[in-house]
Task: structure prediction
Amino acid sequence: MDTEEYVESVLVDVCSKSFKMFSNLGEEQSLTCETTEQFMDVLSVVKYALEDDEANLYYLDPIIV
Result:
């Protein structure tokens, strides 16, 4: 059985400047950025970290009112 926890996928919500990470063990972690600059910095790190990984990066569709 695989006991090492790792990020399996990341859901990015551009409108709310937030991220939700899902692990292979079913755990969830959320992060909401306060500024656009902070959001872009975190997005860069996430993209770089997932570049050579099997994890999936998903973007939430914006809500158009």
